[in-house]
Amino acid sequence: MKTIIVTQDDPFYSPVFFSNFLKNNTTEAVIILPTLNQKNESHLKLIMSFYGFWGFTKLGMELGLKGFLNLFNKDLFTESILKKHNIPFFHTNNINSPDTLAKIRSISPELIVAIGAPQIFKPEVLKIPPKGCINIHESPLPKYKGVFPIFWQLLHGEEQIGITIHEMDEKIDEGRNIMQKYFKHDNKSFHKLMKTAYKTAAQMLEEVLGNFDESTFKEPGPESSYFSLPDAGAIKKFKQKGLRIN
To answer: What is the pTM of this model?
Structure first.
């Protein structure tokens, strides 16, 4: 199936997805959006407040090591992985901009797949591919809609982490569920569980694309919840429970 994958410019989790997915699959092109759709200064403040000083320092050290190792192993950053597999990609600040819409239409995808995409797809994007747009969300939808769903699942004591692939519509994390899986965890680190989730997502997408059957799509259940960015109070409770950001 002719697909486009939309992701964000993230050095830690998107590479895990692509390094696993592209082992046995391909895609027509990849669109890379800015991380969390934040301006540089506000994005830095968000990361600092979420990870804390030492957590942010550890991320910086991990990123520096990845940069060095990527000189020898081209599977550590999204762009280098895509180049290795000869997958075309381009950056855009707005998935809904006229220029981006024109590029998508020129590719004529049958399906658009979003993973970690930080922007809402407007109807102009949603109606381009004949098979629609689908999203990979790290929660058992319709529970834990919104952002940082693994953080909220850990904070609420969920013993299993859910991941859902679902149809996209104009509302956030709505649409029929295509596939849903859970994995048990004994890890208290948000950072490490995100990597596990993105590896699992790659396996799930391979299954979905191998048997894309709209008759099997299911309406989401009634038990719905939505969470936004964690504030200082939520982060404090998270750490008081012995959980870790990284």
So the answer is: 0.87
